[in-house]
Design brief:
Residues 1-20 form the signal peptide. There is one protein chain. The chain is α+β, with helices and mostly antiparallel strands. The chain has one domain (3-247). Helix content is 32%, strand content 32%. It contains ten helices and twelve strands. The strands form two sheets. An eight-stranded mixed beta sheet has the order 3-4-5-2-1-8-11-10. A four-stranded antiparallel beta sheet has the order 6-7-12-9. It starts with a helix and ends with a strand. Residues 141-150 have low confidence and may be disordered.
Length: 249
C-alpha cells in the first residue's frame, strides 16, 4: 500500500468514533525532547473492523505494521505540493520530521497510530497540530484526515513554553476562524468525536511542585503528569486544556 494511501486510510479510521488521542511530550535535562500523538482506534476495530476491511478493499484486510516519515510522503507528492501556495508549503515543511508508525489488524481488532518527532527546543512545537491540518490540501481539500474533522483544527493557536522553572501549555482561540466555521460543521465534529478522549501525558526532567489543573495525576516520582479530557472539550473549549507546571528548585 503506497504511503499516502496508507496514511489516508489510517486517518479515515481516526475520524470515526471511539478513538483515544494521547498527546505526549518528554523534555530532557538540556531542553531537547520528543513530541508525539498516539491515536488508538482499537475499540472501533472491535465493533466494525470486518466491515471497514471490506469497504476499503484487499489491502485494508492485511495486517499492517509500518513506519515512514512525512518527508518520504512529501517526496511522493512533490508535484502536488509545488502547486500549493508558499504559505501552505511552509506549513507542510514543519511536518517533515514527523515519523508515522501504524499497526492495524482486522483479526486482532487493533488500530494504533503514532505521529512522533524529536525537537531541540519546545519552541519548535508552536502550532504543530494546526500545521497538520494543511495535509488536507494535498488532494485539493478532499483527503480523509482526523485534522479535517477537528484534530489540530479546533480554531485555536497552541503554544508551549519551558524555561527550567515553569512549563506552560496555552491555546488561544482564533476568533476569526471561529466565526468562519459553519455551524453544521461544528455539529458534525461534535457527533463524530462525542465518545472520544484526549489525554495529555508530559514527562519532565525535574520534580513537579504544582500544576494549575486540579485533575492532573502525578507519577510516583512526580516528574510526569497525566490529564484526561473529552475530545469535545478539545474541540469546543481548547482553553480548558491550558495549564502551567511549576518545578521544585
Amino acid at each position: 500500500m503506497k504511503l499516502y494511501k496508507l496514511l489516508s486510510f489510517c486517518f479515515l479510521i481516526a475520524t470515526l468514533t471511539s478513538c483515544t488521542f494521547t498527546e505526549n511530550i518528554t523534555i530532557n535535562e538540556n531542553g531537547t525532547g520528543n513530541f508525539s500523538v498516539d491515536i488508538d482506534g482499537s475499540s472501533l476495530m472491535q465493533m466494525a473492523g470486518d466491515q471497514i476491511g471490506s469497504q476499503m478493499g484487499a489491502d485494508a484486510k492485511k495486517d499492517i505494521d509500518s513506519t515512514f516519515s512525512f518527508k518520504q510522503m512529501f517526496e511522493q507528492k512533490k508535484d502536488s505540493i509545488a502547486k500549493l501556495s508558499p504559505e501552505t508549503q511552509q506549513e507542510l515543511k514543519k511536518l517533515e520530521n514527523f515519523t508515522i508508525k501504524t499497526k492495524m489488524s482486522s483479526e486482532k481488532k487493533e488500530f494504533l497510530m503514532t505521529m512522533a518527532m524529536d525537537f531541540k527546543n519546545v519552541n519548535e512545537l508552536q502550532d504543530i497540530l494546526q500545521s497538520a491540518s494543511t495535509l488536507q490540501k494535498l488532494e485539493g481539500g478532499n483527503a480523509p484526515s482526523p485534522v479535517g474533522a477537528g484534530f489540530g483544527g479546533n480554531n485555536s493557536k497552541l503554544s508551549y513554553k519551558y524555561d527550567g522553572k515553569k512549563f506552560s501549555r496555552k491555546a488561544i482561540i482564533d476568533q476569526q476562524k471561529l466565526a468562519e466555521k459553519a455551524k453544521d460543521s461544528a455539529d458534525m465534529s461534535k457527533m463524530i468525536f462525542a465518545s472520544s478522549n484526549y489525554i495529555i501525558k508530559y514527562h519532565f526532567p525535574k520534580k513537579i511542585k504544582k500544576v494549575s489543573n486540579p485533575n492532573a495525576l502525578f507519577s510516583d516520582d512526580r516528574k510526569s503528569i497525566t490529564i484526561q479530557y473529552s475530545f469535545t472539550d478539545y474541540m469546543e473549549n481548547p482553553e480548558k486544556l491550558n495549564f502551567e507546571v511549576e518545578f521544585e528548585k
